[in-house]
């Protein structure tokens, strides 16, 4: 199989055009944070608290963060020593098998393509709360055009736009945690409490009021919340000095996410009854009735709902922006590896894969059908598909690193030659793989997600079948 870097696109004068190393470390960190901080935190965190209880939710997010950290440590070794764009498919192809590499590439593309649909649908629903007479499909179309422009103009423009979109939501989460802690400790008043609430709510109904099982039942949602950290691997091929910047970005992104997510859960659980933290779109003001809005309202911040609606829309569009980037690069890599027609690796003069970006945006089109099939129905099904496909990709990262290290040593190399190496080998990749597998199987236990689970398995089978059909056709 050809390496993703072995084939270059030529311009009209016969000069090579390649993806440009236009991203700095700050872009890389914000790209990872931007991909992760979205629906999983602003909209789904309350649901996890309502199901698992306050301490159960804290435990679930800590476990989710540790799983993400193990996967990212495995990714670090692969990305630093093989910095290519569209990396997961190349890693799996080189270290597991070409058929698996092909499948992983398509699963990652499917995951982010489906995520586009969830982000645009949710953002359009929020806009309709401001402008109830404008149809959801019109807002979806506007958002599609904006995200397309950001990705098509240039990699540098995309990186800058994503940096500032991510900065808005990162700053919001940081402010939320600081103000929340001030309310918990009694420095500012909170509606419903005459004195500092402290952390009594965390154990008011017992340590685990709903038992242990909900912790595991919510792990797919929690893992989806951390989804996006792996974009560091995708962007390694377009990053300045990847040997230095990729490891630092991995450590910075994962630990910041752990602080943001766990800190957010502690603040919400300490200030609100855990039974009332989940979203209820039938008896509330839609998706903007997230626990963030409730906390800000009780503190007395004016226009809290409008502020959080704006922030959540920004967060959703940021995730769509980075998701389109990641999925289009995966499609570009498939084309360069000659597993898709050459047209998909066509680059503009600024180095963006224009056809791959346009085709990937197909995933955003289900949002245009929201009024015919119901926005909630489309949102939930796309969310399940996106979460499961990311678990498969994470499993492949752990497996690829396990085989890479073993083959590296078999070939006579030493550990000292590795520019970055995963610590605690082989424990980290094995634990990462097992925990991701358990998380993926939990989807089958949820009746609402069972159809998506079966659909994803059928898609995986179709990927393998199509790869071997293409491979044998080439051979013949």
List the helices and strands and how they pair.
Blueprint: E1 9-10, E2 16-17, H1 25-36, H2 39-42, H3 45-52, H4 54-81, H5 87-95, H6 98-130, H7 136-153, H8 155-184, H9 213-217, H10 219-226, H11 231-235, H12 242-271, H13 291-299, H14 304-336, H15 354-360, H16 370-373, H17 375-410, H18 427-441, H19 450-475
Antiparallel strand pairs: 1-2
List its traits.
Amino acid/polyamine transporter I, 19 helices, 67% helix, 476 residues, disordered N terminus
Describe the fold and architecture.
- The protein is built from 19 helices and 2 strands.
- It has 476 residues and is mainly alpha-helical.
- It has one domain (19-475): Amino acid/polyamine transporter I (Up-down Bundle).
- It has a two-stranded antiparallel sheet with strand order 1-2.
- A hairpin with a 5-residue loop joins β1 (9-10) and β2.
- α1 packs across α8 (155-184), α4 (54-81) packs across α18 and α5 (87-95) packs across α17 (375-410).
- The longest helix has 36 residues, at 375-410.
Brief overview:
This protein is mostly helical and 476 residues long.
Rough outline: globular
Outline the low-pLDDT stretches: 1-17, 279-285
Strand content: under 5%
What structural class do the secondary elements suggest? mainly alpha
- Number of individual domains: 1
Helix content: 55-70%
Organism: Acinetobacter defluvii
Keywords: Membrane, Transmembrane, Transmembrane helix, Transport
Membrane topology: Multi-pass membrane protein
Protein name: Amino acid permease
